[in-house]
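General statements about sequence and structure are easier to judge against a single worked case. Part of our work consisted of pairing the sequence of a single chain with a tokenised description of its backbone. The amino acid sequence and the backbone structure tokens for this protein are reproduced below.

***
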Amino acid sequence: MNSTISSAELPEAAPLEQAKAQACIDLPLFTRHSSNPILTREEWPYPINSVFNAGAARLPDGDTLLLCRVEDRTGLSHLCAARSENGIDGWRVDAQPTLMANPRDYPEEIWGIEDPRITYVPELEQFAVAYTSFARGGPGVSLALTKDFRSFERYGVIMSPEDKDAALLPRRIGGRWALIHRPMTALGAHMWISYSPDLRHWGSHQIILGARRGGWWDANKIGPCSPPIETAEGWLVIYHGVRQTASGSIYRLGLALFDLEHPEICLQRGDSWVFGPEASYERGGDVKDVVFPCGQTIGADGDTINLYYGAGDSCVALATGSIRRLLSWLDANSNPAAPGEL
């Protein structure tokens, strides 16, 4: 389900130089689906305030599953699954919350659980769900494993507060599991990687991508979005940057590429953002000017990305893109000598 995608396996395209030139011109790299938003609170079988920031998975039966962050009318969040044959409509939403906070056994979840990222791990034959657990100490990273999104093996907190936006890589790197995440430290809000022998004990922490300074679109605060995509060229990462303006924050998306066997090494980083809030459901909502993906699926062609994102912290929307075009755009629009600025 998460096998490496090589350029040779992708559909035939124009020669590389032509593709690079075309990628410089043909924006946007992601196209919004005409049915957007694809999930709103009106689809929910029980009363809620909003649904957004969904992890995504392709199930063995071919269905697309979205594990959505659902904010109820207390203001706290839980996770609820929606399934669809085509990943666009006809969603079958669980009649009750799929994964609720359990503050009795996991006190780090006293104020809810949020923003899941799903990675299928072939070695374990299970899906790993990294999610944010929220309590008095702030947000932390928790982990659970599941085969069917009906029952879960919870690992509890694996990264203590303040930390969030975590995604597990689908295979071991040098014999260890790897997790990309976004802690808040004295250095600021940057992307880090950590390694573990057993998914419970983590170390070898290091920054892999820094938020830039000054007037950049991704100055001061960045973080990973959906789980990294393994390609022959490297780990393709869609990340978010937060621009502070006089009227509030703007969440936009950028691209970076990391070495396959040494994912702490950034190979390429795009200078400009590639997707930002434009549609009415993204510019408005509970939190305006937000596009925030937590999951994607890859099409049968091995190239199409179905990117599921929270819009305005109020609904779930879908945008499609091409792995080939994203990699070509990075080739033409990145500065490998300056992957970050701390």
Q: What stands out?
A: The first strand starts at residue 31 and ends at 32. Residues 6-14 have pLDDT under 50 and may be disordered. The chain has one domain: 13-333.
